[in-house]
Design goal:
Length: 520
């Protein structure tokens, strides 16, 4: 009998997984209907992948960034994700009426399948900025492999002078083998560097050496790449500009060949990007590696309030004994060199077995200090009755959560769930796992209390053969697109949930790095 039992169990695994997928698919439909009814309005799909090129996973969109200025909200994202890096093109979606309506399209002149084709084989890592002095919107991105040269990845900047509705062919801001760009502009009229725009990126061929470039003419031309004073290494810095013109750049650093290799760092410039300080360590960053999903590097999500105070959020397992799931933590700084001890963001109770990652933080830039309004979207594992956060790839259930604070992060609202449950196998597949994005983004229409997170949502693929398949399998069509919320659905209410003085546990075992990480 034991032999027969085990034989039957082995034979039933594919059937069990198929049944589980069917159950979650049905739950998806039911929960989505319930969610729509409960919220009063459905999510808004702001784009869809139209490309049919051979190397992309059809109908996949991942990794949106957003920026809001006045009543305009612009998002940029990857369209047609490629398994081993990049996408068919960069898409955009723009609202000029405070999020009531959106137009969308695809940036011209980048890849061979872009509108008005360009020289690059793939594109990646969209980052959106607005230059108020020159009245131009910018989307920086990476152009991969021009003319088939797989050793070259360039930093590109696309420009829009009509409110993000149409876009120019890109400017090449920097050439090399580059990764993980992020762009911001100084939009304070009283700043001595009003109209300067700054892009952070790194050189993975040089150990992820941190680089910065500056533009003073609305992104038309960019200065030479400059290193930090201590020639440090890192990835995914997010520059922010204080009202006095000081630029603060939170970034994730690392140490090769040690357990728990990541730490959060920052550096600054006080002279308009002419030079950059040495990095300082914000905090060590122990992490749990979520099963199956591409969330293996704890990228920061940072924003700034009206006073120039910077808020930095990242995934971290220090409050979970055994480091078996991630929470989200928050640190703040008023000068970029001295940071508060990270505090727990109370998305779920400690020990709840919910795993949190890929945060997207927004701060209302008309608020500040103890009255600063914060909004935070994030992905998480865990679905009552199905799986915990510490799940396995075949049964992990993924959703998007959302919380807010009206007092600078001292306390938070209850978690809202924005999406129905998703299976990982519904997502674009990459060399680093199934993908929604290394980052997502949230923006606020300042002064109006309206919040616009942008995130990837997937429904079950079609044309899946009986033996199963992924978005990367021949003939399979996935349905992973970029969504946001209606303009009046999410508001910053805050709440009374506080972290308290939770004990910390810094693990001595965990993931290690054998080489500098890359993330395009």
């Amino acid at each position: 009998m034991p032999v027969i039992f085990h034989s039957r169990w082995r034979l039933s695994i594919p059937i069990a997984l198929a049944l589980l997928a069917l159950i979650v698919s049905l739950v998806f439909t039911l929960v989505y209907r319930g969610f729509t009814h409960a919220a009063g309005e459905p999510l808004i799909q702001i784009s869809s992948d139209p490309f049919h090129n051979k190397i992309s996973q059809h109908k996949t969109e991942v990794e949106p960034d957003t920026f809001a200025f006045g009543n305009t909200v612009v998002s940029g994202f990857q369209v047609g994700r490629v398994f081993n890096g990049g996408a068919a093109d960069i898409g955009f979606a723009t609202s000029n009426d405070g999020g009531k309506t959106f137009i969308h399209g695809f940036l011209p002149g980048i890849t061979t399948v872009s509108p008005h084709p360009g020289p690059y084989i793939r594109a990646s890592d969209a980052s959106v900025a607005f230059d108020a002095r020159h009245k131009v919107w910018l989307i920086s991105s990476l152009g991969l492999f021009p003319g088939g040269n797989t050793s070259e990845v360039d930093l590109l900047v696309s420009r829009s002078t009509d409110g993000g509705r149409t876009w120019s062919r890109p400017v090449v801001a920097a050439k090399g083998d580059l990764d993980k760009n992020w762009t911001v502009c100084d939009d304070t009229p009283t700043s001595p560097f009003y109209g300067h725009c700054y892009s952070e990126f790194d050189n993975p061929a040089d150990g992820d050496r941190i680089l910065m470039s500056t533009s003073t003419d609305g992104g038309l031309t960019w200065g030479p790449a400059k290193e930090t004073a201590n020639h440090d290494f890192g990835i995914a810095g997010q520059p922010l500009v204080q009202p006095n013109g000081t630029v603060i750049v939170p970034i994730v650093g690392f140490t090769i060949s040690v357990n728990q290799p990541f730490n959060q760092k920052s550096f600054i410039s006080t002279n308009g990007g002419a030079s950059w300080s040495a990095t300082v360590i914000i905090s060590r960053d122990p992490i749990h590696i979520p099963q199956g999903i591409r969330a293996t590097i704890p990228l920061p999500s940072a924003e700034i309030d009206a006073s120039g105070k910077v808020y930095d959020v990242w995934q971290d397992c220090r409050f979970e004994k055994g480091c078996f799931v991630n929470d989200l933590v928050l640190s703040t700084s008023t000068d970029g060199l001295h940071w508060t001890t990270p505090t727990l963001v109370p998305t779920d109770p400690i020990g709840s077995h919910f795993d949190h990652f890929v945060p997207g933080l927004a701060v209302d830039r008309t608020t500040s200090g103890s009255s600063a309004h914060l909004a935070l979207a994030f992905y998480f594992f865990g679905f009552p009755g199905f799986t915990t956060g510490n799940c396995q790839t075949n049964d992990c259930v993924l959703r998007v959560g959302f919380i807010t604070s009206t007092n600078g992060g001292q306390s938070w609202s209850n978690k809202e769930v924005l999406t129905p449950p998703m299976f990982l196998q519904w997502l674009a597949l990459t060399t680093q796992g199934y993908m929604v994005g290394d980052y997502i983004s949230t923006s606020i229409i300042s002064g109006k209390n309206h919040v616009f997170p942008a995130f990837a949502v997937a429904t079950p693929p079609t044309n899946v053969p009986p033996q199963g398949g992924t978005c990367n399998s021949p003939g399979v069509v996935c349905h992973e697109s970029t969504f946001t919320t209606p303009e009046d659905l999410l508001e910053i209410t805050g709440g009374t949930n506080v972290a308290g003085n939770a004990p910390t546990y810094f693990p001595t075992t965990g993931p290690s790095l054998k080489a500098p990480p890359t993330a395009f």
